[in-house]
Amino acid sequence: MTQSVRAGREGDLLAVVSQSGATVSFFDAADDTRVGDVDVLAEPHELCFDARRRLLWCASTYRSGYYHANSGRRSELTAIDPDTRRIVEVVDLSPEHAPHGLALDAERGLLYASVEGSDERPGGVVVVDTATRRPIGRIDTEAPGPHWFVISPDGTTGYATNKEAPFVSVVDLEKGTLTAKVEVPGSEGLAVSPDGTRVFVAAPYGSFASGAEPPSPGIRVIDAKTAAVTEVLSVENIVFPVHVTSTGKVLAGELRMAAEPGSPLGGHAPGRLTVFSAVSGDRLGHSEVGLFPLTITSSPDGALGYVACVTSSTVDVIDLESMKRLNRLDIAKRGEPGAHGLAYIPRAR
User: Fold this and answer.
1) Which residues form a coiled coil (predicted)?
2) Strand 218-223 and strand 198-203: pairing?
């Protein structure tokens, strides 16, 4: 099985962000060898690959630190050539700041980046023309901290999760307006089904502060037509990343905590990748992963799952049929923790 899921991947790459190390590392998708690194601005978070233009986009979110505990917000997106592993351009989104979630509409040549709000304006989504690599618009989400952002397969609707605000923002990408607020407790990662009919949202918000007992964790399933939650996929632990494969599997990264006094993000036991059917909601399996799973992606054929774990600074490569771990990639090349954003990059054809 291992050989079959690896077959035909020669020349494909996996790109991985080291958040604290401020690098994007590239691995051969066929044998997992590291083939190069690109230095980027401090606190890179998410990645998005534009196959048409052969550009990898990287969002740099803070000057140091993380959400609610940082020394200032950055305003840049970095465009990288993954084949030469060189920076093509650094795009400044000022006065917008803290770009995080990235989503691409390849047909229309538009890149969307969620940005945090300020005293002058709420959080929103910046629209970037991928031909000119310049911002051409903004859509308000009416929440201070929109974080993850995804778009429907037809490119007409966008969804932004909001950590503190008790709703998911739904925006009309053609009109550039907010159209709905879907009630959920503060939310983390999200993903859209391949047919665009359902949106899967991790909630509640993963706060590490002590206080009131949070709502039960789960994957809220939003009906795209009615913009309402119709069911909840049950999990045991708080989930940050959610991803849907091309074959209709929902991948959720569960955090499992362990006692560790004095750590601002708590202590972590090995996390868990839990897999559901995007159609039936049935649980299909699970696999143990590294500490604090934060980002998930998959190969275009849906055979392999990749789970970036920020505290262990590792990426687990999972066979999504057998649910066996094929490898664990060490991202902390410079001794700095922080594996975060992921992108699978098919070879140029």
Assistant:
1) none
2) antiparallel
The structure tokens listed for 338 are 């922080």
What CA–CA distance (Å, rounded) separates 236 from 215?
12
Q: What is the pLDDT of residues 274-283, one digit of tens each?
A: 999 999 999 9
Q: Give me the DSSP letters along 129-177.
A: ETTTTEEEEEEE-SSS-EEEEEE-TTSSEEEEEESSSSEEEEEETTTTE
- The amino acid present at 13, given as its one-letter code, is L
Written as six digits, the tokens of 51 are 């196959």
- Residues facing residue 44 across a β-bridge: 60
**Chain length of the chain:** 349
Phi, psi dihedrals of residue 151, rounded to the nearest 5°? -125, 155
Tell me: the pLDDT tens digits for 69-122?
Answer: 666 778 999 999 999 999 999 999 999 999 999 999 999 999 999 999 988 889
3-state secondary structure of 6: helix
Spans of the chain, pLDDT less than 50: 1, 262
Planar angle of CA 126, 74, 346, nearest 5 degrees: 65
Which pair of tokens denotes residue 180? Answer: 């709905």
The model carries a pTM of 0.94
What CA–CA distance (Å, rounded) separates 244 from 233? 14
